[in-house]
Amino acid sequence: MPRAVVLLSGGLDSATTLAIAKDSGYECYCLSFNYGQRHDIELDKAKQIASAMGAASHKVVTLDIGQFGGSALTDDNIEVPKDVDTEEIPVTYVPARNTILLSIALGYAETIDAKAIFIGANAVDYSGYPDCRPEFIQAFAEVARLGTKEGVEGRPITIEAPLIDLTKAEIIKKGTALGVPYELTWSCYSGGEKACGHCDSCRLRLKGFAEAGLKDPVPYEV
Amino acid sequence: MPRAVVLLSGGLDSATTLAIAKDSGYECYCLSFNYGQRHDIELDKAKQIASAMGAASHKVVTLDIGQFGGSALTDDNIEVPKDVDTEEIPVTYVPARNTILLSIALGYAETIDAKAIFIGANAVDYSGYPDCRPEFIQAFAEVARLGTKEGVEGRPITIEAPLIDLTKAEIIKKGTALGVPYELTWSCYSGGEKACGHCDSCRLRLKGFAEAGLKDPVPYEV
Predict the structure, then answer these.
(1) Residue of chain B whose Cα is closest to the Cα of A89
(2) Which CATH entry fits the domain spanning A3-182: 3.40.225.10, 3.40.980.10, 3.90.1720.10, 3.40.50.620?
(3) What was the ipTM of the complex prediction?
């Protein structure tokens, strides 16, 4: 079986991406990051998801980019917004996050001779994040082709973003068909025992389940 | 003064790059990495160089990519070769290293509103490293343009690799003219009180000083 590195955050999108990678015939090596995001619950969930979905391995890379600040997700001085709609780049954007995650995944992929990297980037729901757009993914694929020995040897590591054009409802339907244990996934920005239901991420998720005609198995605060 | 992030390893090339960035009118924010390279001496030297050359700041990011293995520089099970000439990608190649360093520099640059990132990549002496070639740097510049809010807003962070086409002798001459304190730089792969003089990196350095008609101020084992 060819190997793939799968970026796994503990959220709904990356769990679905793992299911798609597996269904495409890859042996999956999951990679999560501790980059100062506010809540360890995401990493606990990522570990449970990797195990439940039969990943070959799960590694966590600690990355102290929180020392730079600049994002509500890594900087305690910036508040995570609730119930706000905006067309601008949200404060939850972590500078160059996907570039950083993909680059480390690329180093890992070279080391274990993986053929592909899977990322759950999505351009529909995260339209404000520049590093979730197809043109960004394509540009990074060029970096992978030109910046690695595999690329130089004519067998570049590919960058797969199978969710990039899907709505949240389409993602949930696809994942449900593939048996993703959504009860293990965590999307809320705010942490706590139950999901808040009001942050951007919770609202997107709830809307997605509603549109898919399915019930979100995760508990919410009333 | 516009700001630049300068990747500073503690070696000769990155110190020269810092001097060029400063001479180009940038306020320099230096970034070093602790990625499991064998010797802390490089990071000590980087700190001294940043201070001696009047950098605005120096940060060290710890990155546990050593857990992946795959390089003689981060994996104790792979020996650093001495006095070997090869056309192949050397075992001292760290998978996707420059992609990883540039991506984190990109996140930092976004956070501090820097206009440029300087990297001491060199295609002449490191011809075996795919991520030291001009086409790689250009591909990464596209990632920076497409994957950041600055790029989306039409003012992309530029990637500057001022040494890319220079020989080691040319780098040393340029740096000497700009007053680089080469006595503070460290190039040896093998560590120790004095440089070994036999690893790839020492040999390149000694050859460069000889061709430049200058004396390397760093002490070597006899």
Answers:
(1) B149
(2) 3.40.50.620
(3) 0.89
